[in-house]
Protein backbone atom coordinates (compact mmCIF):
# COMPACT_ATOMS: atom_id res chain seq x y z
CA UNK A 1 0.00 0.00 0.00
CA UNK A 2 1.37 3.39 -1.00
CA UNK A 3 0.32 5.23 2.15
CA UNK A 4 2.47 8.31 1.51
CA UNK A 5 0.86 8.87 -1.87
CA UNK A 6 -2.62 8.21 -0.49
CA UNK A 7 -2.03 10.53 2.48
CA UNK A 8 -0.97 13.25 0.03
CA UNK A 9 -4.13 12.64 -2.03
CA UNK A 10 -6.27 12.87 1.10
CA UNK A 11 -4.57 16.14 2.11
CA UNK A 12 -5.13 17.53 -1.40
CA UNK A 13 -8.78 16.45 -1.22
CA UNK A 14 -9.26 18.34 2.07
CA UNK A 15 -7.50 21.37 0.57
CA UNK A 16 -9.82 21.26 -2.44
CA UNK A 17 -12.85 21.11 -0.16
CA UNK A 18 -11.64 24.25 1.62
CA UNK A 19 -10.94 26.03 -1.66
CA UNK A 20 -14.32 25.10 -3.14
CA UNK A 21 -16.10 26.68 -0.19
CA UNK A 22 -14.14 29.94 -0.62
CA UNK A 23 -16.37 32.71 -2.10
CA UNK A 24 -13.55 34.04 -4.30
CA UNK A 25 -13.21 30.64 -5.99
CA UNK A 26 -16.98 30.28 -6.37
CA UNK A 27 -17.11 33.61 -8.22
CA UNK A 28 -14.40 32.46 -10.67
CA UNK A 29 -16.23 29.80 -12.72
CA UNK A 30 -13.17 28.49 -14.58
CA UNK A 31 -11.16 27.94 -11.41
CA UNK A 32 -14.19 26.46 -9.62
CA UNK A 33 -14.78 24.04 -12.53
CA UNK A 34 -11.12 22.94 -12.55
CA UNK A 35 -11.04 22.42 -8.78
CA UNK A 36 -14.41 20.62 -8.83
CA UNK A 37 -13.14 18.19 -11.47
CA UNK A 38 -10.00 17.45 -9.45
CA UNK A 39 -12.12 17.05 -6.29
CA UNK A 40 -14.41 14.64 -8.11
CA UNK A 41 -11.47 12.64 -9.49
CA UNK A 42 -9.98 12.23 -6.00
CA UNK A 43 -13.30 11.55 -4.25
CA UNK A 44 -13.63 7.81 -4.83
CA UNK A 45 -10.05 6.91 -3.98
CA UNK A 46 -10.05 9.09 -0.84
CA UNK A 47 -13.31 7.49 0.32
CA UNK A 48 -11.84 4.01 -0.19
CA UNK A 49 -8.61 5.01 1.58
CA UNK A 50 -10.54 6.34 4.56
CA UNK A 51 -12.47 3.07 4.72
CA UNK A 52 -9.19 1.17 4.45
CA UNK A 53 -7.76 3.10 7.41
CA UNK A 54 -10.85 2.32 9.52
CA UNK A 55 -10.65 -1.38 8.67
CA UNK A 56 -6.91 -1.39 9.38
CA UNK A 57 -7.59 0.15 12.79
CA UNK A 58 -10.20 -2.55 13.45
CA UNK A 59 -7.62 -5.22 12.55
CA UNK A 60 -5.08 -3.75 14.95
CA UNK A 61 -7.65 -3.56 17.76
CA UNK A 62 -8.64 -7.19 17.19
CA UNK A 63 -4.99 -8.27 17.27
CA UNK A 64 -4.50 -6.34 20.53
CA UNK A 65 -7.48 -8.16 22.07
CA UNK A 66 -6.08 -11.51 20.93
CA UNK A 67 -2.70 -10.70 22.48
CA UNK A 68 -4.25 -9.61 25.79
CA UNK A 69 -4.50 -12.68 28.02
CA UNK A 70 -6.87 -10.88 30.41
CA UNK A 71 -9.56 -10.57 27.72
CA UNK A 72 -9.77 -14.26 26.86
CA UNK A 73 -13.57 -14.15 26.85
CA UNK A 74 -13.40 -11.83 23.81
CA UNK A 75 -10.92 -13.93 21.82
CA UNK A 76 -13.55 -15.75 19.72
CA UNK A 77 -15.28 -12.48 18.87
CA UNK A 78 -11.92 -10.87 18.06
CA UNK A 79 -10.97 -13.78 15.76
CA UNK A 80 -14.21 -13.40 13.81
CA UNK A 81 -13.81 -9.64 13.63
CA UNK A 82 -10.20 -9.98 12.49
CA UNK A 83 -11.18 -12.49 9.80
CA UNK A 84 -13.90 -10.19 8.42
CA UNK A 85 -11.69 -7.10 8.66
CA UNK A 86 -8.79 -8.80 6.85
CA UNK A 87 -11.14 -9.87 4.07
CA UNK A 88 -12.50 -6.32 3.74
CA UNK A 89 -8.99 -4.86 3.93
CA UNK A 90 -7.79 -7.05 1.04
CA UNK A 91 -10.81 -6.07 -1.06
CA UNK A 92 -10.27 -2.36 -0.39
CA UNK A 93 -6.57 -2.75 -1.18
CA UNK A 94 -7.42 -4.24 -4.59
CA UNK A 95 -9.87 -1.43 -5.34
CA UNK A 96 -7.38 1.24 -4.30
CA UNK A 97 -4.61 -0.28 -6.42
CA UNK A 98 -6.97 -0.31 -9.41
CA UNK A 99 -7.83 3.36 -8.89
CA UNK A 100 -4.14 4.29 -8.60
CA UNK A 101 -3.56 3.23 -12.21
CA UNK A 102 -2.95 6.48 -14.11
CA UNK A 103 -5.83 7.59 -16.30
CA UNK A 104 -5.32 7.67 -20.04
CA UNK A 105 -5.90 11.19 -21.42
CA UNK A 106 -8.08 9.64 -24.14
CA UNK A 107 -10.46 7.95 -21.68
CA UNK A 108 -13.06 10.71 -21.89
CA UNK A 109 -12.91 11.15 -25.65
CA UNK A 110 -15.14 9.82 -28.41
CA UNK A 111 -14.36 6.84 -30.62
CA UNK A 112 -15.16 6.10 -34.23
CA UNK A 113 -15.28 2.39 -34.98
CA UNK A 114 -15.50 1.08 -38.53
CA UNK A 115 -16.51 -2.50 -39.22
CA UNK A 116 -16.06 -3.85 -42.73
CA UNK A 117 -16.66 -7.28 -44.12
CA UNK A 118 -13.44 -8.83 -45.38
CA UNK A 119 -13.08 -11.23 -48.26
CA UNK A 120 -15.50 -14.10 -47.99
CA UNK A 121 -18.74 -12.84 -49.46
CA UNK A 122 -21.97 -13.27 -47.51
CA UNK A 123 -20.29 -15.14 -44.68
CA UNK A 124 -17.92 -12.21 -44.06
CA UNK A 125 -20.87 -9.80 -44.20
CA UNK A 126 -22.77 -11.87 -41.62
CA UNK A 127 -19.68 -11.93 -39.41
CA UNK A 128 -19.47 -8.13 -39.67
CA UNK A 129 -23.12 -7.97 -38.55
CA UNK A 130 -22.33 -10.20 -35.58
CA UNK A 131 -19.41 -7.92 -34.67
CA UNK A 132 -21.67 -4.88 -34.86
CA UNK A 133 -24.23 -6.51 -32.57
CA UNK A 134 -21.48 -7.49 -30.14
CA UNK A 135 -20.04 -3.97 -29.98
CA UNK A 136 -23.50 -2.40 -29.64
CA UNK A 137 -24.31 -4.72 -26.73
CA UNK A 138 -20.94 -3.98 -25.11
CA UNK A 139 -21.51 -0.22 -25.42
CA UNK A 140 -25.02 -0.60 -24.01
CA UNK A 141 -23.68 -2.53 -20.99
CA UNK A 142 -21.10 0.22 -20.39
CA UNK A 143 -23.77 2.92 -20.65
CA UNK A 144 -22.17 4.53 -23.68
CA UNK A 145 -24.10 6.45 -26.32
CA UNK A 146 -23.85 4.95 -29.81
CA UNK A 147 -24.61 6.57 -33.15
CA UNK A 148 -24.57 4.53 -36.34
CA UNK A 149 -23.15 6.87 -39.00
CA UNK A 150 -23.60 4.68 -42.07
CA UNK A 151 -24.41 1.07 -42.90
CA UNK A 152 -24.62 -0.98 -46.09
CA UNK A 153 -26.81 -3.95 -45.28
CA UNK A 154 -26.94 -7.07 -47.46
CA UNK A 155 -30.08 -9.05 -48.32
CA UNK A 156 -29.27 -11.67 -45.67
CA UNK A 157 -28.78 -9.12 -42.87
CA UNK A 158 -25.01 -8.78 -43.06
CA UNK A 159 -22.94 -5.65 -43.63
CA UNK A 160 -20.53 -4.81 -46.45
Would you give an account of this structure?
The structure is a single chain. The protein folds into two domains: 3-99, no CATH class; 110-160. 68% of the residues lie in helices and 0% in strands. By secondary structure, it is an all-alpha fold. The protein is flat, with a radius of gyration of 26 Å.
Write the layout of secondary structure elements.
Elements: H1 3-20, H2 23-27, H3 29-67, H4 75-99, H5 122-142
Helix pairs in contact: 1-3, 3-4
List its traits:
160 residues; mainly alpha; 2 domains; 5 helices; 68% helix; 0% strand; flat
Instruction: Give the low-pLDDT segments.
Output: none
| Strand-residue proportion | under 5%
> What is the number of strand segments?
0
By DSSP (H or I, 4+ residues per run), the number of helices equals 5
Order of helices and strands: HHHHH
Mean pLDDT: 91
**Helicity level:** 55-70%
- The secondary structure category is mainly alpha
* Global morphology: flat
Q: What is the terminal separation in angstroms?
A: 51 Å
Rg measurement, Å: 26 Å
Total domain modules = 2
Largest sheet: none
Amino acid sequence: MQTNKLDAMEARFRSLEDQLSDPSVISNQNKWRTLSKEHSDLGEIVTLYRSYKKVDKTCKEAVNILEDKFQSDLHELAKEELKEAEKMKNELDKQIHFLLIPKDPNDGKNVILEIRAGTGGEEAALFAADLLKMYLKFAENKGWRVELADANETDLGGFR
